[in-house]
Amino acid sequence: MAGLYYRGMRLTEFHQLIEDEFGRAKGRHLVHSHVLASQGVTVGELVDAGADLREVWLEICRDFDVPEGRRLGLDTPERWR
Questions:
Q1: Tens-binned pLDDT, residue by residue, of the chain (81 aa)
Q2: What SS3 state is found at 62?
Q3: How far is Cα 75 from Cα 60, in angstroms, rounded to an integer?
Q4: N or C terminus: fewer CB in 10 A for the chain?
Q5: Phi, psi of 24 (to 5 degrees)
Q6: Helix orientation angle between 24-33 and 11-22, rounded to the nearest 10 degrees
Q7: Which residue(s) pair with 10 in the sheet?
Q8: Cα(72)–Cα(2) distance, rounded to whole angstroms?
Q9: By the 8 A CB rule, do 7 and 53 touch?
């Protein structure tokens, strides 16, 4: 079964990046409550509107000063199976 894509990034990959960086609980809270500085709407609203998930992720990284070395998520063996 193919995953749901939003302009090139799977929704599951987007959520995994958020969970990897912020943890499951904080990541879920962030999606529903964080208003992106550049957009003026929440992350969840952008996802629901079909925004480019890569761009949304990069905006989250900018808002939270995520170092560039962590913007691709965790490099774990499970991720490459």
A1: 345 545 678 999 999 999 999 999 999 999 999 999 999 999 999 999 999 999 999 999 999 999 988 887 776 555 544
A2: helix
A3: 19
A4: N
A5: -65, -55
A6: 120
A7: 5
A8: 21
A9: yes
Residue 21 tokens read as 């960086």
- How far apart CA 12 and CA 5 sit, in angstroms, is 9
Token reading at 54 = 């890569």
Q: Which residue has the tokens 């302009």?
A: 7
pTM: 0.82
- What 3-state class would DSSP assign to 19? helix
Q: Which amino acid is at 22?
A: F
- Sort residue 40 into left (φ over 0), alpha (ψ -120 to 50) or beta: left
